[in-house]
Write the structure tokens for this entry.
Amino acid sequence: MPSPSADSFAAFARSSPWRWSTLRFSVRWPADPWKPGAVRAWLRRPDVLRVETVAGVLLQVVREPARDAGPQPLLRPDGLVAERRRSWDHDLDDPMHQDYHWVAMLDPAELADGREPDTVDTEVLVPALEVGSVVEVEHAGRPAWEAVVRPTDAYEPRCGCCPLLRSREVDLDEYRDHPQHVLEEYPGAYRVRLDVQTGVCVLTEALGGDIAGRGHDLRIEAVDEPMADVLFVEPRRRW
């Protein structure tokens, strides 16, 4: 296990697709009026997902077309991913619920590598965040790393309308035809946590600005447990 550092934090953020095969978890979005209530999910990579309310009401079963496991990345000596190509992202996406924020919190590569605004080559990657001190914490009883971060001009989320971290640069580009969605004051920083075993982004929290307190809180319940096909069969509807 590497020591907490900005470099290793980025490596964890790149590594999720190669660190787990199934995940059972719950997630909520505190203080965000645009998000639904808390949900519980079962995800079996690469292609199936079940989502329920916390009361057990089925919301969605997602079955993606079968696909290859994707390319193998360049690893560091500690087993974390040293380099990852942006062109891989669609091949590695987990089944999605509602929007790409779901995909990004499960595979938070956008927190590791960004692209210089003036560079047309999408494979030339630079740090996406300014990362303060990284500390070891617990999240839902599991080891995690926490850092206070700021998006750089190079931060490029998986989807501009539903990033893990909102920034003025991304919003000005995303909402250039709808400036009413641009915030007057952006957070000075964000608190971010990555689960050590899986690399999943289990927490984001805006620190200050118009959206102070917003983010997500993901609680992992089980990793790599067997998940039978029947779990991902949607009940037949009655006429």
Remarks:
- The radius of gyration is 18 Å.
